[in-house]
Amino acid sequence: MTLPCGDAGPQIAGAVAALLRDVPDFPQPGIVFKDIAPLLADAKAFGAAIGALGDHVSGCGPVDLVAGVEARGFLVAGALARDLGCGLVAVRKAGKLPPPTMRRSYELEYGSAELEVPVGVLDGMRVYLVDDVLATGGTLRAGADLLAQAGATVTGLGVLLELGFLDGRSRLTGVAPVHALLRV
Ligand code: AMP
Predict the structure, then answer these.
(1) By C-alpha distance, which of 38, 9, 18 is closest to 179?
(2) DSSP H or E stretch at residue 67
(3) Residue 4 resides in a domain
């Protein structure tokens, strides 16, 4: 049996792996959805995961804000920001934030999507960006580019899970250091 692997070591990778639920054919046929609900519901494991991400945030230098991508990224970002004693910013799907906002579109496997951030809280800030899952990397890439467009410096990128076979990490080369607690 191979040990679970991730950027914070096999112990935290194993804890995350044990509390992920695979949901075949959701939200569409052929996709295996990685449900983080059991991890979020386990106080000890969720606390350890946030602590491990926090170590990476600290290793990336000073940070003013943690940014989370809608929607599950919000859950990670909120806990992380509270742990680190820094602020929080929501990277939202287009049309949800009140103006003024900045918007960026990006390609999905089929079609495209748009992300938005609020104007006025990001200029000059050092921001660490998180999400639950790194798949093709399009979402984190667009989020990081948008934060930079809004005047922020992106210090690092963190996820609970990376789907390594999709090679999303290659789309993030040169953007900021990437940290995934579990890579499958
Ligand atoms: P991508 O832009 O392809 O890296 O996709 C990442 C975004 O899509 C994240 O916000 C994830 O929440 C979501 N996502 C993509 N694939 C999955 C999956 N297999 N299970 C759960 N969430 C996923």
Answers:
(1) 9
(2) strand 65-69
(3) no
Q: Is residue 5 part of a domain?
A: no
Q: Which residues of 14-45 are buried (b: 16+ CB within 10 A; e: fewer)?
A: bbbbebbeeeeeeeeeeeeebbbeebbeeeeb
47 CB contacts (<8 Å, ≥6 apart)? none
Please, are residues 57 and 65 in contact by the beta-carbon 8 Å criterion? no
- Nearest atom in ligand 1 to the alpha carbon of residue 35 is 21
19 assigned to some structural domain:
yes
Residue 105's CATH number? 3.40.50.2020
> Could you report the per-residue pLDDT of 117-126, keeping only the tens digit for each?
999 999 999 9
- Asked if pLDDT for residue 45 goes beyond 80, the answer is yes
CA 126 to centroid of ligand 1, rounded, Å: 25
Counting ligand 1 atoms within 8 A of each CB, the residue from 91, 92, 134, 139 with the most, and so the one to mutate, is 139
In a domain, 173, yes or no: yes
Q: How far is the CA of 67 from the centre of ligand 1 (A)?
A: 16
Q: What is the pTM of this model?
A: 0.98
The residue range of the domain holding 24 is 10-183
